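Next comes this protein:
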Amino acid sequence: MKTHKIIIFITLFFFCSCTPSYSGDDKELERISVEVDKLSIHVGEKAQITVIAHYKDGTKQDVTKASFGTKYSSLYFFNPFSTSDSDIDSNGQIEGIALDDGSTSGIESFKISHRGKTEIIAITLYPDSAIRIEAEKTKIDVGESVQLKVWRKKTDGSRVDITNHKSGIRYRTIYKEVATVSKDGLVKGVGEFREKSHTVTIYVRNEDDRDSIRFIVKK
C-alpha cells in the first residue's frame, strides 16, 4: 500500500511540474489590447508595456511576458536629429538611452505581436533635463482636469517645485480643441474631435530647460 501511495505522489508531482500554467493556446484569440504605463520617458527612465489577450469565449489573460509567445520590436524613431533613443526587452520594458549630449526629443513606435494579432504603440523620448513635469494620471475624460507638477533639479540632488507661473514657467499646447492648460499647469480635457480618444502634448519651458508630457483625452 505504501508503494502505491509513493507512485501516485510521484506521478502527480511530475504532472504538476511539467504542465504549463498558460492555457491560452487552446482558446480562439479574438484580439489583443496593449497599454504602456508612461506615454513619455526621459533618458535613463523606463516604461512597461502590458499585453492582454482577449478570447472569443469572453475570458482574457495577461500575456506580457515573452514566455507566452509575445514578441516586441522597435519600428521607427521619428526625428532624424534626435540624440536620444530607446531599447525594448523581450518582456516589454522600454528604457531611454542617450546617444550623445544633444537636447532634441523624438517619438518611437513599437510593434507588439501575439498569435497573429498585432498592435502598435508610440512613446515620446526626451533627453535628460534639469526640469521634470509630472501628473497623477495621463488619461483623462472630456471635462476632467488634472494638475501638473513641475520640478527643477538642484545641484545637490534635491528638487524645488516651480509649477506656479510666478517661477517663470510657461505652458503651451498646440491642440486646444483636445485639451487646454492654464498658466499654472491645470490641464482640462476639451474633446472637440471626432475620434473616441485623442492624444495631446503639453509643453513646458523654464529658462533654457524644456520638458513635455502627453495625455490621452477620452470621450
